[in-house]
Amino acid sequence: MNASAQACVIGIDIGAGSLKTTVVDAHGRECASASRDFPTRAPHSGWSEQDPEEWWLSLCDTVPRALATAGMSAGQVRAVSFSAGAHTAVLTDANNQVLRPAILWNDQRSGAQARELQERHGARILELSLNRPTPTWTMPQLGWLREHEPDLCAQVRRIYLAKDWLRMRLCGEWHTDVTDAVGTLLWDYAGQCWSDELCKLVGWNPETLPPVVSPTTVVGKVTPGASAASGLLAGTAVVCGTSDTSCESYGAGSDRPGAGVVKLATAGTVSIIGDKPHVHPTLINYPFAIPGLWYTITGTNGCASAHRWLRDRFFMRAGDIGSEVFAQMDQLAATKPLGSDGMLFHPYLQGERAPYWDPLLRADFVGMTTRHEPGHFVRALYEGIAFSLRDVLGEFRARGLDMSEARIVGGGSRSALWRQIVADTLGVRIVLPAVTDASFGAALLAGVAAGLFADEQTAAGHGKASRVIHEPNPAAVRRYEDLFGLYKETQSRLADINHRLHAFAQGQ
After folding, report:
1. I need a surface site. Which of 5, 128, 318, 382 has the fewest CB within 10 A?
2. Which CATH architecture is the domain 3-251+435-467 placed in?
3. What is the pLDDT of residues 282-294, one digit of tens each?
4. Which residues contact 459 (CB under 8 A, 6 or more apart)?
5. Domain 304-433+473-505 classified CATH 3.40.50.300?
6. For the residues 329-353, what does the mean pLDDT come to?
7. Whole-angstrom Cα distance, residue 263 to residue 250?
8. pTM of the model
9. Residue spans in the chain of domains classed CATH 3.30.420.40
């Protein structure tokens, strides 16, 4: 075997509740992976924070384990790259020390700031950044911090996005890629620069924002100190990487305009690859991992996070293994009929993004009777999240965008029942790729940077293989279309009640 065949690359992804490291060989094959969980904390209702140090500890734990499982040595690693959820800022001081826990993309505390930005400057923000302000984005989060933690903000000298802070721990360098730059809502895409005008809207100093490079740029090398902690060799190339959704779609083999992707992860999303952005207040646009392409995306806040909530609150007992409980829940749901015997679920446990953009919406089970058993609740959750994705797809269709097939990624894609429900609810063919994790896509980008693959398009071909295809069942499609009408009607009628319940809970 020649040297290039023995070479490997590593992709590292920071997920919602765990970090995953994947080793990929020079043929684009996944050799092994390792993961480590870490906590997400909610010190107040609607908050969602993580300690960045947990990401670093997870990297140092998973990299040696993944290499050992793959039978690879650190000397065979040609490059390492990264992905993580967009929008998550890590703030550091003059000594590059982290000032506070990182606010995650699903945190809802900046709802008031997002509403004010939209009402006063929405059109201009959309024009410059290609997107609208919601609590998901970094800009409103920074606005909240300026209002509530001004002394801390005065100490900030650098902003890192999540993957960039973790990468810095390996190589000491400060960069981000254009996708994560767009994800801050502070990047002027036409001007290809940080926008003084957008920063001024939240009173932020643009000098705290990092240099911007391409996802396949080698930004540094593993330092001796990081080598001792992580098990990687000093001098190993460290590659910028990009956002998790871009890496997931890329690693799943989506490489041309019209390709659709459904993601059943902490949030649920629908995205369509294109050759240009489709700027509209209800759609989100990012540059894709492949140069010259874009992905237009929008999504629902509650997906696997709602699934986990149901498990942890109502199915888990002391001593249970979480993955086994999920499997048992799936088996129970499979025994229940389409429509869950007349029970609906709206997955708004953390407010909602598209198409309502309302952080005050609340989740519910509607239509419960004494006949409903635990399996009904699981199936209703699967169906409710699929309906929420159907709501999201409606935003694309209203703009003239559609798909006949979608590759499905994320932890929820493990359930064959849930995959079929998504196919029947959306009315599209659902393809389960052989590999679905963002860390795989990040590793492919590392392979491009290291010269193992000719270019991004060539590397994406290694994600084309599929395991299962789900065709929509015409009879089920018709039944779900009828039920979707009831889902929409109940959402509309309950929205005002949701707002009043929020006011009551706040003592207003």
Report:
1. 318
2. 2-Layer Sandwich (3.30)
3. 899 999 999 999 9
4. 28, 444, 445, 447, 448, 453
5. no
6. 96
7. 13
8. 0.87
9. 3-251+435-467, 304-433+473-505
